[in-house]
Amino acid sequence: MAGGDCETRLLLETVDGVVDFKGRPVLRSSSGGWRAAAFIISVEVAERFAYYGINSNLINYLTGPLGQSTATAAENVNIWSGTASLLPLLGAFLADSFLGRYRTIIIASLVYILALSLLTLSATLPSDGDAQAILFFFSLYLVAFAQGGHKPCVQAFGADQFDINHPQERRSRSSFFNWWYFTFTAGLLVTVSILNYVQDNVGWVLGFGIPWIAMIIALSLFSLGTWTYRFSIPGNQQRGPFSRIGRVFITALRNFRTTEEEEPRPSLLHQPSQQFSFLNKALIASDGSKENGKVCSVSEVEEAKAILRLVPIWATSLIFAIVFSQSSTFFTKQGVTLDRKILPGFYVPPASLQSFISLSIVLFIPVYDRIIVPIARTFTGQTLWHHYATKNSEPEFFFL
């Protein structure tokens, strides 16, 4: 009898801090976890399949049907890739401040489908006029805009499906990041192995049309999982991170000429650090009033300082980005000059040579998650070691 009561409690156990899509409390037994994460991963795989289906072979399209020189094409590829890398900042701001992650994913997926349909249409136009180039570049940057909404939300929404206060779900959440990377890298491997062959040997219309169909299927699957998703409840008057951090810099700038002596501040539970002390001016209310949120909290100021501490790390990443960008530009064009024949009548597409990057990741992540992490746990005693390692890109260290 006691066992039956225990099972009943587990089945009726609700999860704190989250609701379903109608705003109702959710049961742990019928929501979240890998059940919901599987739907979310599917849309990520399709999105990465679509994005890299364009990115990996873009230089060959620019130098082929559009007739650009290699230097001009490489420049256009890098400008587009750089723009696509910056737009997730805008997407994250919109999601945190206005739309929420779920709505942002839905809207971004719809924009993606529109962009890919226009991209496919552009490949059907005559290449001797300006109409093809205009429509192509418009749809290309529309793809960049769509992935800017997709990229910052999908993985975070997937992580929301695991309760960090529940031991079993906390372990699953830690493993989620590894398998997330594994699945979308596997999708990338399919892209550079098969889709690039279709683009080079069958045609660009089908080569752009396949990602379009994949995104339609993925959005349908993602929508089917709506009943299983957990939606985080924002705190009262909680601002998004972009709003909080931006407010710190704006307030500190306004109080640039104000000294702390002008503000008889009461004792604080947590004193601000002295590093980047100019941001401490965000704690000052120059008009002598702290009402209506005119000053920032110490935690908000320290959060802004943490962003500044990351700047040197981001700066060093520029070197890696410069080197990595060569794989989809000059390395791919260099592959055109190689003897790529492996079977009679079969030539490996130049862009498919990028598959070695994805293959190394696909092979290593299961080893990392199932062998290296458990061994590391025995030495560190930290059950969440691989969660932090994954979020800090520990696997990339081994790949390099």
From TrEMBL:
<keyword id="KW-0812">Transmembrane</keyword>
<feature type="transmembrane region" description="Helical">
    <location>
        <begin position="204"/>
        <end position="229"/>
    </location>
</feature>
<comment type="similarity">
    <text>Belongs to the major facilitator superfamily. Proton-dependent oligopeptide transporter (POT/PTR) (TC 2.A.17) family.</text>
</comment>
<dbReference type="GO" id="GO:0022857">
    <property type="term" value="F:transmembrane transporter activity"/>
</dbReference>
<dbReference type="Pfam" id="PF00854">
    <property type="entry name" value="PTR2"/>
</dbReference>
<dbReference type="InterPro" id="IPR000109">
    <property type="entry name" value="POT_fam"/>
</dbReference>
<keyword id="KW-1133">Transmembrane helix</keyword>
<feature type="transmembrane region" description="Helical">
    <location>
        <begin position="346"/>
        <end position="368"/>
    </location>
</feature>
<feature type="transmembrane region" description="Helical">
    <location>
        <begin position="307"/>
        <end position="326"/>
    </location>
</feature>
<dbReference type="GO" id="GO:0006857">
    <property type="term" value="P:oligopeptide transport"/>
</dbReference>
<dbReference type="InterPro" id="IPR018456">
    <property type="entry name" value="PTR2_symporter_CS"/>
</dbReference>
<dbReference type="InterPro" id="IPR036259">
    <property type="entry name" value="MFS_trans_sf"/>
</dbReference>
<protein>
    <recommendedName>
        <fullName>Proton-dependent oligopeptide transporter family, major facilitator superfamily</fullName>
    </recommendedName>
</protein>
<keyword id="KW-0472">Membrane</keyword>
<feature type="transmembrane region" description="Helical">
    <location>
        <begin position="131"/>
        <end position="148"/>
    </location>
</feature>
<feature type="transmembrane region" description="Helical">
    <location>
        <begin position="106"/>
        <end position="125"/>
    </location>
</feature>
<dbReference type="GO" id="GO:0016020">
    <property type="term" value="C:membrane"/>
</dbReference>
<feature type="transmembrane region" description="Helical">
    <location>
        <begin position="179"/>
        <end position="198"/>
    </location>
</feature>
